[in-house]
Design a protein that fits this description.
This protein is of the alpha+beta class. Helix content is 38%, strand content 13%.
C-alpha cells in the first residue's frame, strides 16, 4: 500500500537503478517476471497513458529478490 508522499519512478529510472536496459523493464512488466510490480497508468486514455511505478513497490520487489540466488542485477550474494 502506498502513501500520499510516495515517489514515482520512470521505466528508465528503474532500469538505471538496477543496471538493466529499459526494454528489460518493459518486458518484466508485461510478463510479470518474478512478481515485477505493475505500473500505474497516468492519463485519460489507459492505452497511451504515461507509465510510472511507485518507488515503494520497486523497493519491496528488490527486497523480495534479495533472498533469491543468481539475480544478476543484485550482485553476488
Amino acid at each position: 500500500m502506498s502513501n500520499i508522499s510516495d515517489e514515482f519512478m520512470t521505466q528508465a529510472h528503474i532500469a538505471k537503478l538496477i543496471g538493466v536496459g529499459s526494454a528489460t523493464i518493459a518486458k518484466w512488466s508485461r510478463n510479470n517476471v518474478n512478481g515485477f510490480p505493475a505500473p500505474l497508468r497516468i492519463g485519460p486514455n489507459p492505452l497511451v497513458a504515461t507509465k510510472r511505478w511507485r518507488k515503494s513497490d520497486i523497493d519491496k520487489w528488490i527486497s523480495k529478490l534479495k533472498g533469491i540466488r543468481n539475480v544478476p542485477f543484485l550482485g553476488a550474494q
